């Protein structure tokens, strides 16, 4: 039995009367999870829609609490870190983390970045030791798989693409996924949404086929 953590971050829903208003990234996420759970009935799924329950943005008091040892934290500091602790527990338990994200202004949505900020904790998701020289930070967690499912309005954001240098979504999350414990990282996405043409339809179908193949492989 495995624990699956599914994180959605699009502000769009998937039940709009006008289909074109629906979130594509959430649709891909649901497709992945449905395929997975149909194949692995015994697995346990934890789901968070960050749009419905947004993470808090970190602040100076949050930083002070995070860098205070657990034994010395005040009740107020423990309260400030309660949401972070909850997110960390979910990530710790997960064997597979599925993250869906649209590309907003060439990067991830603010609520997804806030979720990552809440999870990035010294002595929890990373250790810090100046004895390591110029690279004092190392991940603590390991052994997990992270799947990122994305949707983009434009195209050509992949390696060698015409907009590769503008892509601050996939590469950023791939780097951060190390601190979720990712030993394996997979990214599948659709493009051309703003063009609403055959290329977009083909891109979505191609993404679904890639998801099907990935579920069979994992």
From TrEMBL:
It catalyses: N,N-dimethyl-1,4-phenylenediamine + anthranilate + 2 NAD(+) = 2-(4-dimethylaminophenyl)diazenylbenzoate + 2 NADH + 2 H(+); 2 a quinone + NADH + H(+) = 2 a 1,4-benzosemiquinone + NAD(+). SUPFAM superfamilies: Flavoproteins (SSF52218). Pfam families: Flavodoxin_2. Binds 1 FMN per subunit. It comes from the Bacteria. Keywords: Flavoprotein, FMN, NAD, Oxidoreductase. It is an enzyme of class 1 (oxidoreductase). FMN binds at residues 10, 23-25. Its cofactor is FMN. Its EC number is 1.6.5.-, 1.7.1.17. Residues 2-213 form the Flavodoxin-like fold domain. Belongs to the azoreductase type 1 family. HAMAP family: Azoreductase_type1. Homodimer. Quinone reductase that provides resistance to thiol-specific stress caused by electrophilic quinones. This is FMN dependent NADH:quinone oxidoreductase. It comes from Marinomonas sargassi.
């Amino acid at each position: 039995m495995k624990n699956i953590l599914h994180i959605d971050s699009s502000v769009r829903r998937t039940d709009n009367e006008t289909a074109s208003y629906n979130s594509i990234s959430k649709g891909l996420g649901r497709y992945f999870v449905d395929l997975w759970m149909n194949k692995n009935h015994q697995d346990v799924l934890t789901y968070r829609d960050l749009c419905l329950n947004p993470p808090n943005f970190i602040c100076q008091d949050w930083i002070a609490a995070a860098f205070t040892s657990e034994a010395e934290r005040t009740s107020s500091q423990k309260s400030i870190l309660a949401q972070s602790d909850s997110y960390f527990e979910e990530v710790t338990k997960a064997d597979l983390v599925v993250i869906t994200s649209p590309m907003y202004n060439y990067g991830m949505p603010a609520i997804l970045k806030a979720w990552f900020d809440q999870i990035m904790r010294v002595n929890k998701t990373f250790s810090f030791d100046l004895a390591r020289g110029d690279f004092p930070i190392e991940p603590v967690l390991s052994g997990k798989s992270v799947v990122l499912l994305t949707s983009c309005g434009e195209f050509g954001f992949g390696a060698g693409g015409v907009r590769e240098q503008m892509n601050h979504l996939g590469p950023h999350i791939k780097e951060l996924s190390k601190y979720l414990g990712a030993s394996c990282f997979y990214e599948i996405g659709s493009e051309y949404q703003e063009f609403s043409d055959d290329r977009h339809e083909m891109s979505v179908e191609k993404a679904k086929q890639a998801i099907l193949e990935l579920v069979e492989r994992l």
